[in-house]
């Protein structure tokens, strides 16, 4: 090769940018796009307030207005001249959970049920306070509306927690206390926390709480319900739709997240021994949200209380075994309130 030939030699073209470098940008962008699309696809809006009131409250839906602007949805059913029972539902439930007991006890008792703040058709309240104190205020709002000075008070799960807290604050107003799988007792020595259900487990994490206000799949609600009960046959389409639609009632999802972060004041459990009202403690022995041994703890701490464990029943005994629960409540109230009425000198 001559020198001239060497000078005429064409240099190689500049190297092209390797394809893998473009992939490092394109793949994450594509993944992000998929995530955004999935988020938008799964995004579940609030339900329509008026439509929900029409569907789940009916034309005669009643609301009690409180001094702080609360509008508490309630039902006043049963025998109007009978002893009054106020019943409080659990977290993410509604007053509908008590309808099986209303059917069975309404012939002898006046039964008042309500949607606690951040639940059912009550929805958000102006204060955005979903502590026990706000729940207690809601009970007082309804009791004042119905001119009830004294009554029997019962509650399930969170509603049971509110009920025994209410008795501590207003002991003279409560004739008897009914605790159905009630929350608020500490774990016993050596116990582990129960497995709970998928919905409550999601709320344990900050990202889960953020997501819970925006994405609420019906399937998730169904799985949470099925994880809460032992009698699976009570979970039908109507029940799933009710929980799903009322959870999305305006303000309820935000309230759910706020409750998950609210201090439950566990130290107050030491005060349940102050309760002097006749108390029935009724638990399903297959409860997976609250250890059934909590019934024993309540029983040990509340003097004169009665404990009943229902075999093969989960967290919602009033819906899973309404006949047995109604019979137990009627028997308890008949015996204990009659005994209270006789006075200590004739007992």
Write the layout of secondary structure elements.
Elements: H1 3-7, H2 19-42, H3 49-56, E1 62-65, E2 71-78, E3 84-88, H4 99-105, E4 110-114, H5 132-145, E5 151-157, H6 158-169, E6 174-182, H7 198-202, H8 206-212, H9 218-226, H10 237-247, H11 252-260, E7 279-284, H12 293-301, E8 306-310, H13 317-320, H14 322-342
Parallel strand pairs: 3-4, 3-5, 5-6, 6-7, 7-8
Antiparallel strand pairs: 1-2, 2-4
Helix pairs in contact: 4-14, 5-6, 9-10
Explain what you see:
The protein is globular, with a radius of gyration of 28 Å. It has a domain at 62-193 and 265-341: Rossmann fold (3-Layer(aba) Sandwich). The protein is built from 14 helices and 8 strands. An 8-stranded mixed beta sheet has the order 1-2-4-3-5-6-7-8, sandwiched between helices. By secondary structure, the chain is an alpha/beta fold. α4 crosses α14 (322-342), α5 packs across α6 and α9 (218-226) crosses α10 (237-247).
Notable characteristics:
347 residues; Rossmann fold; 8 strands; 14% strand
CATH class of one domain: Alpha Beta
Query: If classified by CATH, what would the architecture of one domain be?
Result: 3-Layer(aba) Sandwich
Calculate Rg over CA atoms.
28 Å
Question: What is the strand tally?
Answer: 8
| SS element count, helices | 14
Question: Biggest sheet, strands in spatial order?
Answer: 1-2-4-3-5-6-7-8
Strand content: 5-15%
What shape does the CA trace take? Answer: globular
**CATH superfamily grouping of one domain:** Alpha/Beta hydrolase fold, catalytic domain
What does the main sheet amount to? 8 strands, mixed
| Overall average residue pLDDT | 89
Per the CATH scheme, the topology name of one domain is Rossmann fold
Order of helices and strands: HHHEEEHEHEHEHHHHHEHEHH
């Amino acid at each position: 090769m001559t020198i001239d030939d060497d000078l005429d030699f064409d240099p190689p073209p500049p190297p092209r940018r390797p394809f893998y470098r473009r992939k490092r940008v394109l793949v994450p962008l594509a993944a992000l796009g998929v995530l955004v699309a999935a988020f938008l696809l799964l995004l579940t809006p609030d339900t329509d307030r008026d439509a929900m009131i029409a569907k789940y409250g009916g034309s005669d839906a009643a609301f009690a207005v409180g001094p702080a602007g609360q509008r508490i949805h309630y039902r006043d059913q049963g025998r109007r001249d009978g002893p009054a029972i106020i019943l409080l539902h659990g977290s993410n439930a509604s007053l509908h959970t008590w309808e099986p007991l209303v059917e069975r006890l309404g012939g002898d008792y006046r039964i008042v049920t309500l949607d606690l703040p951040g639940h059912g058709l009550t929805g958000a309240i102006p204060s955005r306070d979903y502590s026990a104190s706000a729940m207690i205020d809601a009970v007082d709002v309804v009791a004042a509306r119905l001119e009830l000075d004294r009554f029997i008070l019962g509650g399930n799960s969170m509603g049971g927690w509110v009920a025994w807290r209410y008795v501590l604050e207003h002991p003279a107003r409560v004739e008897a206390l009914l605790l159905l799988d009630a929350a608020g007792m500490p774990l016993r020595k050596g116990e582990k926390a129960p497995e709970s259900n998928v919905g409550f487990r999601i709320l344990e994490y900050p990202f889960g709480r953020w997501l819970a206000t925006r994405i609420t799949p019906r399937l998730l609600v169904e799985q949470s319900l099925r994880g809460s009960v032992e009698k699976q046959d009570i979970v039908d389409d109507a029940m799933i739709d009710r929980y799903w639609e009322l959870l999305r009632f305006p303000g309820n999802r935000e309230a759910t997240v706020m409750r998950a972060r609210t201090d439950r004041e566990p130290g107050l459990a030491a005060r349940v021994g102050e309760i002097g009202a006749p108390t029935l403690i009724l638990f399903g022995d297959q409860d997976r949200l609250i250890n059934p041994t909590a019934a024993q703890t309540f029983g040990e701490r509340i003097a004169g209380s009665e404990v009943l464990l229902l075999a093969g029943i989960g967290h919602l005994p009033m819906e899973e075994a309404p006949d047995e629960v109604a019979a137990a409540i009627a028997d308890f109230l008949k015996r204990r309130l009659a005994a209270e009425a006789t006075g200590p000198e004739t007992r």
